[in-house]
Automatic annotation (TrEMBL):
The keyword Oxidoreductase applies. This is 3-oxoacyl-[acyl-carrier protein] reductase. It is an enzyme of class 1 (oxidoreductase). NCBIfam families: PRK07231.1 (NF005559). One of its GO terms (molecular function) is 3-oxoacyl-[acyl-carrier-protein] reductase (NADPH) activity.
Length: 265
């Protein structure tokens, strides 16, 4: 198993992609700390992992609170030892028009998504530098690579990409690797509010994806496990889109261009 005797923290691990990642690392032998702001969600996932024969610990953590983050890392040390891998997955996105977006809402999205990544990374890096090894995997988004709405969330996710490269360069000499994944649309509970308003939202979105569908959380697992593993020992500072081809180009736009040319002729 790729992560036997490794200790992994997954923030936002109580649901969606975080839950799937927590289970996947545990299945590969890691002791997994499931950190989530919702106590019930964190506890449920940790219990699922335990019931499946894995080692897990639930932590109720607000990633925007430095004392909460320190407590999470200290609890990890006490339960399993020092952190080998940190997966910064916790994020918040508010679906609101930019002109009506309030400053408090902007701050909340940016604080959870970007400041949370900063605080968690800073806290685990102390031990990682001392150990001379460690992996930080940041979950960014295609929203960091182009315009797909959610301006505050997108700005924060773009900031994560710069932070990824900065930490990779600064702490590479200490034996620490830092990479990011930029997923496209994933079928997770985060989309439930939009699905309640538009039940066919995934059907409409799939037309924009060259592979013809939106993603499932499981589609991100392979990339995450690879980048966190020793198989990626010479990869750092990288951003890997896992997006069904969304950022590769726009087939619908090309078809409109061809159609327009035909009409002109």
């Amino acid at each position: 198993m790729r992560f036997e005797d490794r200790v992994v923290i997954v923030t936002g691990g109580g649901s969606g992609l975080g839950r799937i990642l927590a289970h996947s690392f545990a299945a590969e032998g890691a002791a997994v700390v499931v950190a989530d702001i919702a106590r019930g969600r964190a506890g449920a996932v940790a219990e699922e992992i335990f019931d499946a024969g894995g080692d897990s610990l639930a932590q109720t953590t607000d990633v925007t609170d430095a004392s909460d983050v320190r407590a999470m890392v200290e609890a990890t040390r006490e339960a399993f030892g020092q952190v080998d891998i940190l997966v910064n997955n916790a994020a918040k996105a508010t679906d609101e028009d930019f002109l009506s977006l309030g400053g408090e809402t902007w701050d909340e999205d940016v604080t959870v998504t970007l400041k949370g990544t900063f605080l968690c990374s800073q806290t685990v890096l102390v031990d990682m530098v001392e150990n001379g090894s460690g992996v930080i995997l940041n979950i960014s988004s295609v929203n960091a690579l182009g315009y797909y709405g959610n301006e505050a969330y997108s700005a924060a996710k773009a900031g994560i990409l710069n932070l990824t490269r900065s930490l990779a360069v600064r702490y590479g000499p200490a034996g620490i690797r830092v990479n990011a994944i930029a997923p496209g649309t994933l079928r997770t509970p985060a989309w439930e509010q939009r699905r309640e308003k538009n039940s066919d939202v995934f059907e409409r979105l799939r037309r924009w994806y060259p592979l013809g569908r939106v993603g499932e959380p499981e589609d991100v697992v392979g990339a995450a496990l690879f980048l966190a593993s020793d198989e990626a020992a010479w990869i750092t500072g990288a951003v890997l889109p896992v997006d069904g081809g969304l950022t590769a180009g726009n087939m619908l736009m090309m078809e409109e261009m061809i159609k327009g040319q035909g009409e002109q002729s």
